[in-house]
Amino acid sequence: MRHRKFLCALILALFSLQTLQFSARADEGMWPFNNLPRAEIKKKYGFDITDAWLRKVQLASVRFNNGSGSFVSADGLVMTNHHIASETLQQISTPQKDYIKDGFYAPTRDKEVKAPNLELDQLVGIEDVTARVMAAVKSDMTAAQASAARNAEINNISAEATKKNGLRNDVIPLYQGGQYNLYTYKKYTDVRLVFAPEFEIAFLGGDPDNFEYPRYDLDLALFRVYENDRPVHSDNYFKWSEKGAKDGDLVFVSGNPGRTNRLDTVAHLEYLRDFGIPFLLKYLQHLHDMYTRYGAQGAEQERRAHEDLFSADNSLKAYIGEEGGPGRGGLKDPSVIPAKKKAEDELRKMVAANPRMQKEYGDAWETIAKERKELPSYERERRFLESGWGLSSQYFDFARTLVRMAEESAKPNAQRLPEYTDGNRESLEQELYSPAPIYDDFEKAKLADSLTLMREEMGADNEIVKRVLQGKTPDARADELISGTKLKDVEARKRIAAGGQQAIESSDDPMIQLARSIDKEARAARKRYESEVIAVERSNYGKIARALFETKGTGMYPDATFTLRLSYGTVKGYKIDGKTYAPFTDLAGLWQHAAEHGDKYPFHIPASWEKAKSSLNLKTPLNFVSDADIIGGNSGSPVINRRGEVVGLIFDGNIQSLPGDFYFDGAVNRAVSVDVRGMFEALRKVYHADAIVMELTR
After folding, report:
1. Taking burial as the number of CB atoms within 10 A of a residue's CB, which of 68, 291, 398, 415 is the most buried?
2. If you average pLDDT over residues 153-175, what whole number do you get?
3. Do residues 69 and 196 make contact, with C-beta atoms less than 8 angstroms apart?
4. How far apart are CA 658 and CA 330, in angstroms?
């Protein structure tokens, strides 16, 4: 693993021009579709983004529950990553057939398998509702009152829009609360699996190669979207390019980046460095250890734990990269925080020099610092009770949803928790009534381990911990709860939901009773966090954003919010520690890479590929890198050329991209993609997926 030593002067430039997202560096950024730097793109690349081009790209893009995707045929075929599809692959697998391991292909549409609880969102409209949201907040309100008023107005806006258009409508805070946009989505809930390769080729190299480059992966999956039991038809889709891309080509990435913190204050970043990320890493390591122990019991247990272990390990490596260290970037690199402080001080000086701005915005930084300093005193309780770190079981999740759904449904829509509003009811019920298999022994292992961690972190003498355990060991309590619950039956969950508050109060289900017994404290922890952190930061980051607008203009991108964004850049290699990395890898390199590691897992090439090797053109590009700005959530995003054709599929970033949550370094940050030519070669010659190839090329 190689790491770049960031020179202090370069980092200062990065933070002054990039972390604060000034328009001078338009190549950087994850841009909302209603605020693209069109003039900058035309000036630099000679490409004019038309309204028609942009609209087609928007409508051809979709959001998965855990990533991104895109329509790639007129008949509803959707492209994403294997690792985005892995939950579906696991859910449809059995002890006799492991589709994660063996792959899946439906040669005809009647063989396509419906994903148990998958929802795709297509963004169809964006409307600026900033004025209306801001008008709900009065100058004499406390932060908590302002938050309640703001949230009520947001719920009202969403409900009114849904009543008018019948679609999903989410009000999204941008620039940390400096702006609010209404995003309208068309939802698709009948989504069927069409193709996925074997895990060994989708993730060749496993965790050792994760976030590394060069890579040799076919991280591809295909679904099909249905409505009324028929494939959807649309003219808005991306054709696959037979020619692919070449070094230096302009490319665009249309996807849903999950989260960045590039606007964060120094105090906020210090909190993440000193408490937030270390605390999260401890939790993730605990998950890794538990999933590993469970999976070691046998092949079937390994299959059941596979997706959870993959997710935990991926998150571990990502947050270790964000934490960083000397010479490695990230928050513990000694050059990073001082660079951010320099840029922050410059902005604060500009604010202080203007009496009006100082009065309106000057207290923002200290206010954020105060609430971040206090957060560790109650963050453990919030995480273990409200976030579910101490109650890790799908059955408990069902119980909490049922308990809160009954209580929230009795409130006016504007006063409900966001996830229980009318506009989110369909998505909530889809998850609650999912027929996906659940394995009791795995649930017991997860719950017992999380109860153990909660007891360790909150203390065995904590009254809530004692109430949860009821004098039993974590293992015994987990066994009692999992064995006794009736929530494993979908129809039982539906009956309780239909019975409302009366059914909840009269239920003798141990999971329902547990959820009720701690809901007061869990809600209180959530309310405190929302009042003292979310509300305070929404107001004060809003001030900082407005200060930036006034001093630097509005030509900057907001932090990622798991909503549709467009990034752009060029196909481009990089140089680090004296070594040059070419932009492309090929099929010949795949076999060489496997041979260098003894062709042993996780570097083992599947038998289907060995069988097809003699027919393959080993010069075919398999993966490539570009300097497009991406982050987690972009997985599954199409990489398209000027003509709106697919040239690649985002599936990872290199190790240098991990601190990209906080800043972007265009010299070494790289997005890693599957090359469309490699996908074509595999579909044609390894999997003989002729029907898919015909659909992609017609």
Report:
1. 68
2. 96
3. no
4. 8
> What stretches of 417-509 show up as alpha helix (H) in DSSP?
425-432, 440-458, 463-469, 474-484, 490-506
- DSSP codes joined into one string, 658-680: GGGGT---TTT--EEEEEHHHHH
3-state helix, strand, coil in the chain (%, to 5): 55, 15, 30
How many Å apart are CA 65 and CA 67, to the nearest integer?
6
Q: With H, G, I as helix, E, B as strand and everything else as coil, classify residue 384.
A: helix
Average pLDDT over residues 520-546: 95
Residue that has been written with the tokens 């998850």 in this structure: 431
Residue 341 has pLDDT above 50, yes or no: yes
Report how far residue 253's alpha carbon sits from residue 649's, in angstroms, rounded to the nearest whole number.
Answer: 9
Q: DSSP 3-state assignment of 179?
A: strand
Question: Is residue 419 a contact partner of residue 562, using CB atoms and an 8 Å limit?
Answer: no
State residue 238's pLDDT score.
98
Q: What are phi and psi of 650, to 5 degrees?
A: -60, 135
User: Which of 633, 655, 666, 664 minimizes the C-alpha distance to 210?
Assistant: 655
Q: Count the residues in the chain.
A: 698
Burial of 520 (0-12, 13-18, 19+ CB in 10 A): exposed
CA pair distance 110, 106, nearest whole angstrom: 8
142, 144, 145, 149 alpha-carbon torsion, rounded to 10° = 130
Strand partners, 649: 638, 674
Backbone φ, ψ for residue 118 (5° rounding) = -105, 135
**CA 448, CA 539: separation in Å to the nearest integer?**
40
Mean pLDDT for the chain? 94
Which structure tokens are listed for 652? 């990872």
Q: Is 461 helix (H, G, I), strand (E, B) or coil?
A: coil
Asked if 420 and 370 count as a contact pair (C-beta separation under 8 A), the reply is: no
- Number of C-beta neighbours around residue 188 at 10 A: 19
Bridge partner list, 172: 181
